[in-house]
Write a structure and sequence with these properties.
mainly alpha
Length: 433
Amino acid sequence: MNSPVNSVFLFVGAFLIRLLFVLRTSRGLGELLGDASEYHEYGLNLFRKGIFVATNGFRAWRTPGYPFFYGLISALTHDSVFAVQVVQCLVSALTCVLLFHCALAFLSDRKWSLITAWMAVFYYDLYAGTPRLLSEVLYAFTIVLFFYLVLTRSRSLKEVFMLGAFAGLCGLVRPEFLLFGFVYSFFLMSGPEGKPFSRVLCYGLGGALTYGPWILRNYFIFHRFVPTALHSTENTYVGLYQPLSDLGFLPYLQYQPTGMSEMAIYDHYRVLVGQIYHQLPLHTILCAYLHNFVVFFYPFLPSYDMTFVILLPFWLLGGFLAIRSRDRRALLILTYIVITVIIYTVINGSAGPRFRQPLSPAYLLLAGYGLKFLFEEWRAKSLPVILTSWLIVNGGIKVAQSQVRLFYKASGKSLLTKMIASSHDPLGGKSVP
C-alpha cells in the first residue's frame, strides 16, 4: 500500500475516532470555562473589533496563536463551538498523517512508520483535547510539523529560514516552545550540512520575522520587554505553591488578585516567587517540584490512561537508544521531551496530564524507535510473551483502576510528605507568602 492510500486510511480512521469522542464527551457551551473562556474572548474580539484584548481589558495575558485559530473558525461559523471542535478533529487527524511521514523520515522503515502512525490514531492523549477549546490540539500539530520540516526540509539556507519562521509561529501558539526552539539552534551549529553560523543566523531571522512583532507590540503597549504572555509568573507561582499546599505545608492556594492591571499581577507574582525561593529551604523546593514531576506522569485522568502507560517503556527505551547511538534526529526528539517536562515541572504542576498532550508526537516517535529495535535487533524469543504480559497487566489495572488509583495517590503523597518532613522545620522557620 503506497503512502497516499495509507495517509487516507489514517486520516479517516483518526477523524472518526476523534469525532465520536467529541460527540460523546463534549459539554457544548460548557466548554467555555477557565482558559477556554479567555481564548474565546481574545478570539472573538480579534475578529469582531480588530483588537487583541480580553473582556477584562487584558491585552497580553495570552499569546495570539490559538485565539487567532479559534476566532477565525468562530467568525466563519457564527460562533459555533461544535464547528471549532470538528476542525480540531480534522487538525488532530492531520497530525496522525503527518506523524506517519515524520516517522518515515525518522525510522526509514515503512512498516514501523505505519505502526507508529496507527498507534497515534488510538493514542488517548493525542485526541483527548479535541472537545476542549484549548491550545493542545493545535500545538501538537505544530510540533509534528516542526519535526517534519527538521527531518525533511532543513538543508538549504532558505529552508532553515522558513523553519525559523515556523518556529516563531509555534511560539505564538504556546510560548514554552521558545526554549526548545532556541536549543535547536545548537543542533544547527553541529549539523553535517556546513555553514553553521549562516544557518543559525537564517533560523534566527526567520523566528524574529514571525515572533518579533508580538514582542514589539507588547513593548509599545507596556513600555517593557514582555517576550511571552503575562500569566507566566502566575503559573510559576502556582507551580511552586500548589504542591506545597497539596502536601499540607502551606495554606490553601489563593489565585489571581482582583482589581489589578495585568502588568501589576505579573509583577505581584514575580515578587511572590522570589520570596518563596528566598525563604524556603532548597530540599523543600526540590520536593515540591518532584511532586509536579510525578503529577505530570500521573496515569489516572481520573480514568486510567492505558495507552500512555503501555507505550511508556518503549519510548523510554527509544530515549536510551537515542543517547547510546547519538542519533541527532532521535536526540532532538528526546531534547524536546526533556525541555518540556522541565518547563511543566516548574509551572502548572497540577495540570500535568493536560500538558502531557503536546508531548504525544515525540513519545510516539521514540516508542516506534524502541519497538523497532526490540523486534529487529534484540529479537528475543520471549519478546511476544513479555509484550502480552505487559498488555494483560495494563488490562488488569484498567479493570481495578479505582483501587490502584487510591493506592498510587496515597503512597506517592505519603512518600513526598516524609521527604519534606525529614527536616525538623520544612519551611525553614519562615512564613511564606
